[in-house]
């Protein structure tokens, strides 16, 4: 632990300020898609299919009824009001071998196989009687069309149909479809395991008392939550003192067990920021000053081939930096093509003013949707990079390019932080 006034490590000059696009291009240029793996369907939501999956079967596998009713031969019901003998009932799950037609009808439940002799089903609402045991009569109130209310075998899929194409982001619907065709697992790009590390002597775990000069470590919890919400496996690497050996040990542990690491703090100009000197020694890092506010300091590089995102320490900055760099980068590692959050045009409900400073500003805003009139935004509160209240209240980041900002009623682009 450094003495309060001793000089800390200096890591040389920070590179010149670079644009957001250049910083992002640098990150994306160094990232690789993770290897593929076979995972159970229950673990595959949100992952990217690594190869085409085809159906080996007819779906549905047999002709079945779309309604509860009576299976008939349509030729046996020439006119509305025809009465037929009911020879029994087929439930969903039974093999459906009732001697229907010519002549008799069979009760049938939704999803049950249509008996071989019957070509149509009449829904129960269009019939009268027929609810007794076999031998009762049913009065058919409509003339059925051949094939009426029958879902033919293979009307959804036939063998060889592609059910999930390589590159698809698996939704609940895809998982259901894969289960439908009998799959229990699917080949995907592996889910990124992302380690999150906090550094700083001033930090204490939530729940512990604060001495003067201390604050609580809030970044780690928030970043772990964002990782989880983005579909990554979040790994808590703990809170590490400003101590070279401890930081190195935590980084080594992280790169052994994770596909990527997020650190927060220690990437700006501070004197005791040992995470910088350790990363400079053990990694192949680039320190950047990005033309954005908040989240200007940012480091990115590889330690033993594992990407490390060095996020700034200020709580709002660390989360905005996650949004700008880590989330899209990690989604790309997960095989996603589309890695950006949704951006929409909104109207400012109040002034969102700023001064020209060469940077793009990302203003924490509350977004509301006004029926057909589209999106509206208003500042979510005080915009300091240490002020988490507005970050917590925000569900959007308004993008203010260099300039004077926007006035009430003017349009502004907003990034929706909606999941
Ligand atoms: P640094 O980049 O390490 O100089 O930190 C910048 C600011 O962020 C300082 O006020 C730190 O106390 C604060 N900070 C750093 N890490 C965290 C953290 N994990 N949680 C909350 N605040 C932090
Ligand atoms: Mg620090």
Structure description:
This protein is of the alpha/beta class. 19% of the residues lie in helices and 31% in strands. The chain has a 7-stranded mixed sheet, sandwiched between helices. Strands 8-5-7-6-10-9 form a 6-stranded mixed sheet, with no helix packed on it. The chain has a 5-stranded mixed barrel with strand order 23-26-25-27-29. A hairpin with a 2-residue loop joins strand 21 (297-303) and strand 22 (306-311). Helix 1 (20-30) packs across helix 6 (315-333) and helix 4 (244-257) packs across helix 5 (274-282). It starts with 16 loop residues before the first strand and ends with a strand. The relative contact order is 0.13. Mean pLDDT is 93; it is low at 1-14. Magnesium ion (MG) binds next to loops.
Fill in the keyword field for this structure:
419 residues; alpha/beta; seven-stranded mixed β-sheet; 19% helix; binds adenosine monophosphate; binds magnesium ion
User: Biggest sheet, in brief?
Assistant: 7 strands, mixed
Number of E-type strands: 29
Portion of residues within helices: 10-25%
- Structural class of the secondary structure composition? alpha/beta
Uncertain ranges = 1-14
**Widest sheet: strand ordering:** 1-19-21-22-18-14-17
Q: Whole-Å distance between the termini? A: 39 Å
Distinct ligands: adenosine monophosphate, magnesium ion
Helix count from the secondary structure assignment? 7
What global shape is seen?
elongated
């Amino acid at each position: 632990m450094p003495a309060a006034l001793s000089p800390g490590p200096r890591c040389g000059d920070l590179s010149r300020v670079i644009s957001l696009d250049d910083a992002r291009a640098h990150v994306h240029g160094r990232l690789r898609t993770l290897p593929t793996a076979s995972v159970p369907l229950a673990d595959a939501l949100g992952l990217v299919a690594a190869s085409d999956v085809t159906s080996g079967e007819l779906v549905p596998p047999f002709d079945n009824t779309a309604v509860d009713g009576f299976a008939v031969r349509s030729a046996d019901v020439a006119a509305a009001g025809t009465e037929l003998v009911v020879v029994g009932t087929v439930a969903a799950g039974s093999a459906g071998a009732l001697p229907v037609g010519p002549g008799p009808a069979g009760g049938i439940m939704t999803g049950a196989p249509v008996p071989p002799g019957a070509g149509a089903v009449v829904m129960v609402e269009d019939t009268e009687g027929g609810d007794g045991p076999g031998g009762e009569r049913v009065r058919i109130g409509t003339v059925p069309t051949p094939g009426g209310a029958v879902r033919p075998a293979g009307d959804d899929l036939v063998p060889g149909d592609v059910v999930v194409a390589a590159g698809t982001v698996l939704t609940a619907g895809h998982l259901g479809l894969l289960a439908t065709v009998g799959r229990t697992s699917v080949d995907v790009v592996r889910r990124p395991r992302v380690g999150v590390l906090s550094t700083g002597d001033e930090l204490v775990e939530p729940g512990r008392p604060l001495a003067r000069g201390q604050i609580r470590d809030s970044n780690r919890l928030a970043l772990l939550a964002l990782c989880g919400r983005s579909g990554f496996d979040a790994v808590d690497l703990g809170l590490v003192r400003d101590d070279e050996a401890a930081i190195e040990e935590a980084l080594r542990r992280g790169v052994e067990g994770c596909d990527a690491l997020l650190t927060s703090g220690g990437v700006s100009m501070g004197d005791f920021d040992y995470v910088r000197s350790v990363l400079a020694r053990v990694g192949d890092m680039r320190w950047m000053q990005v033309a954005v506010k908040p989240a200007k300091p940012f480091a990115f590089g590889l330690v033993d081939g594992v990407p490390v995102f060095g996020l700034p320490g200020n709580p709002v900055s660390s989360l905005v930096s996650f949004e700008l760099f880590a989330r899209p980068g990690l989604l790309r590692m997960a095989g996603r093509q589309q890695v950006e959050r949704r951006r929409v045009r909104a109207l400012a409900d109040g002034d969102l003013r700023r001064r020209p400073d060469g940077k793009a500003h990302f203003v924490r805003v509350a977004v509301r949707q006004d029926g057909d009139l589209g999106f509206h935004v208003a500042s979510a509160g005080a915009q300091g990079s240490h002020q988490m209240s507005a970050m917590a209240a925000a569900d959007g980041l308004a993008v203010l390019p260099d300039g004077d900002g926007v006035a009430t009623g003017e349009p502004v682009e907003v990034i929706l932080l909606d999941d």
